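Example complex used in Figure S2.
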Amino acid sequence: MHWIDFASPHSVREAVDLLNDADGKARVLAGGTDLLVQLRGGRFDDVNLVIDGKNIPELNEITYDPEGGLTLGAAVPCYRMYGNAAISRAYPGLIDSASLIGGTQIQGRASFGGNLCNATPSADSIPAMIAHSAVANVEGPGGHRHIAVEDFCAGPGSNALGRGELLVSISFPAPTSGFGANYMRFIPRNEMDIAVAGAGTSVVLENGNIKSARVALSAVAPVPLYVDAIGDAIAGKPADEETLAEAGQMAKDAATPITDMRGTVEYRKHLCDVLTRRSLQIAIDRAKENA
Amino acid sequence: MPGKTYVQTRINGESVDFLAEPRQSLLECLRDVIGLTGTKEGCNDGNCGACTVDMDGRIVTSCLVLGVEAEGKEITTIEGIAVGSELHPVQQAFLENAALQCGICTPGFIVATKALLEHNPDPTEYEIRFWLANNLCRCTGYDKIIRAVQDAAARMQGVSA
Amino acid sequence: MTTTTDYERNVILSSVDYNVLGTRPIRHDGADKVTGRALYGADFDTAGLLIGHVLRSPHAHANIKSIDTSKAEATEGVMAVVTFADFPSVKDAALDLGEEVTTLHDLQANILARHKALYKGHAIAAVAAVNAHAAEQAAKLIEVEYEVLPPVMTAPQGMADDAPILHESMRTNELGETIKGKPSNIAQHFQHVKGDIDKGFADADVVIEREFNTVTVHQGYIEPHAAAALWNNDGRLHIWCSTQGAFPARDATAEVLRLPVSQVRVTPMEIGGGFGGKIPVYLEPVAALLSKKSGRAVKVVMSRADVFEASGPTCGSNMKVKVGAKNDGSITAMQAYLAYEAGAFAGSPVGAGAMCVFAAYDVENAVIDGYDVVVNKPKTAAYRAPGAPNAAFATEQVVDELAQQLGIDPLDLRLKNASTEGTRRPDGTVFPRIGCVEVLEAMKNHPHYSAPLGEHQGRGVAIGYWFNVGFESSVNIAVNADGTITLVEGSTDIGGSRASIAMQAAEVLGIPAESVRPSVVDTDSVGYTAVTGGSRTTYATGWAAYDAALDVKTQMIERAATIWDVSADDIELKDGVFQSSSDPELNMSFNDLAGQLAGSGGPIVGRASRNAGGMGVGGGSFAGNIVDVEVDPQTGKTSVTRFTVVQDAGKAIHPSYVEGQMQGGSVQGIGWALNEEYYMTEDGAMANSTLLDYRMPTSLDLPMIDTVIVEVPSDHPFGVRGVGEANIVPPTPAIANAIHGATGIRMDRLPMSPVAIMEESWKQS
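Predicted assembly (1217 residues):
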């Protein structure tokens, strides 16, 4: 690897200044499970500064209350999420993702914030975050702003952050009663694999009908794909197989995957249908328990 | 070119200071700077688990940690698992169950298994397989490793009971 | 705690009992390997050690127009840069590395490209610098001008008339004759003929012919290749490396560097897996050249991508198998067409594949055609029963289909046609005593074979064969005053062979396995010993240990005779006690006699060097699988839900490590069957050269692997058959047959990945 410098700021302001000064030649280190591989692979040969986010308090906090919802620091590793019983109950889709990213060791380091900034189409946390209506909290030289997670990724490996901007945390609204969510991916192995396709879903049930729903897909478009049309189409319909089939078909139609070593266009579109139906079914079952 | 960074850690219960280039991984620092070669490199991208170490009570693949990140951390490597001249029950169980063939993955498996059993003293076969899925073994087919972990769990419960 | 089942998960069908053999002592190198003290290839260090980095071709096929190393050489911290030009020129000659035959020219050109890059990852140049990062950065400064050529990626592509040619000098050896004229990518076409194939098919009531394709897969050892070299000031070259054979590594390194073998000393480090892939040398000569130039010790370690792209995987293949049988199930004719990819240089395992393809069947009429085809992929190396799994994937599926068409149980069909002692294979070999029938019977009798199946589940069976090799091994034993023995051997220990060899000496001498101190030593310290490979180590080095122990025993008896003043013929060694047969008062334990050696004439050493024969020693080993799978009809994903492996071990010396070989080979076979593949881009690059995307099985992808050890003794003094390889042969067809049982889909290609199964299901619906 080429030479890099290392900075370990203790405040958001300090980190923003470092990022701003580096003018695109710095990367923020959270868990490092993607960044270090990319640095070694020569993807960031122009990067000469790594800024550790793990000594900045705001990036490492989890705050949750049943009214105000959840705020997840951008550098919080996966294991700290499923280690928390209250969060596990309230945000099942996030927990699905946190428990299947990488393996035990990777989950000891990898963060949702890093996964989001890394912005790969196959990111496992992003569809779940979209299903949970997540908002990214960003601090920059010009102050702070909030970006809906479905708008955060700009293309494979690129995100909405501008010069000097730092992802500080991600906020999730408190789930209402009748809410259920799930993330499911398809991989050829049972762990340690990149999604061939994935589906993050959530529903709110009311009197056995779907009051609202959100569906997002991974690995089938240049960015994690929020298919808002599915929510619009199935809202008000019964939570039955026919509705799920409609959602699955819409997911399949919305997907624009590529053929690569992980799957073909046809297979990935097919999986969008299968995974959307299966994932929604789990979200519905969880919503029923949560009624 | 800027200089190296001074890093203060505790490794296997002893305070260890070393100089690291920021680009060096914790794995490189352990092996090439400190001389603890029991931690192995199999892939250098977090997918084989041969470089597993415990950092502040959590197992990580040390190839995906920078050496400079170890500042102030408490690290346990394979060299710190045995207590004095006594093998740890996990090590003993791996030996008695023939849970290694070539042995290159063994340090990572032992560090990961010890962490599992401290966190979950009586894991099911599924829980063992899930926890160890980040550790690849190409020789054994895992059968005897799973049995060794089950055996180690029984020994450790026997000890604590 | 342990998983409970209503049957025995690890069975040994044993015929003879011994004191030490068949027990399960802790391996002698165990403590080192569970504490991190064992030193593997990359762990080598010495004062002033430099680190080497190899610059590799980004192109699969290209002429090298020029290499300019001046900028790299001028970089601070760089101590040496080498290219092919640094090799001494050599006359070409065949080189037998044991399980690997190549030519000197090819070996040199594979280690550092001569004038052509023949695969992506082909070594072009190497840099030695003060640390790994400096070496890597400096290597980027080497300027190579390439003329990029179209690549050849598969055997059928390479065999096409208009295929791009890899080697302008290559002419096909067609049935023993070199075809003059046009260059070709077909290095060799050979044929085995037995009986009258036309008559055989004419006599058949049913004939099935199918075509199969498999792709390149890798051994996947967890330790990347590593080698260090010090070209000393006395002109001697010392190598420390991770190798399956210190002597073959010494010989190959000496050959390509034009050194007498005695000028090279190889110290084998502990080896982190090989499976055949650590027989060839890649880094050793490079490290040596860098050391010669820099005057310092140099270590070179491959990255994981290097391991995939530039070591030796096993071949992809295109195969056709045709089988004819009568309605009663008797097979009348078998025909195979095997076209195997050699990689960039001649030498695919098609010859071995042809020896194994019909080995389980006693058939009167057979023809086997084999083609060795060069392609723009890394030169293949041995991988556990090289060539045999490909062939079995074809044969065992056709036989399965035949059983279905004839309405005969698939194991009964195999039993009806099974090879036995005296069967002559189509390649001409006549079997000595073998365990083919015993393996099939053990499969049939296993409770797994009749267990119920669930929805979307299917069961498959298959049998596989590997012929095993003998070759040379040397062992020295010295008796210590405390009744232990030191045992010095040259077989690198990949999977517990120190134990299995030590136990054979212990059995002879009537002492516990723990009283043997085995050491694996360097090439200056023991007699020639061939590779740890070919399922030969426990057989051949074990046999040498047996011989050396007999030598010790004879001398100990003579010593006792001297002490007691009786005839040596009067003394026997039984259960570790020397006993006079005429005087019951005259007896002495091995320990006691060992303690008296110094005062009664001096120390005793035993030695043996055994040439255990060539290929097919002891009749080889058969392995069979019963496999249950569940296939998700919506995603095509296959889960192995139950797996039983049966193998003939002749005599299981250390049953745990025999089971370990069986389980490990089975799981490599499962990986090969379901997900592993070199996914090649159109321009000939491997797209998935990481352990993330190559997808070897994790612990979560598998059930427990149940074992049955069958013991049909070989010609070895204890009946040992090597068990390292045959177990990887049956999994791919057994799983294919199980998938067919679950889905009705016949998979004619590997891997049988979810996407492949869905594509096949869409095709068939």
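Chain B touches chain C through 66 residues (CB under 8 Å). Residues 143-160 of chain B form the longest helix (18 residues).
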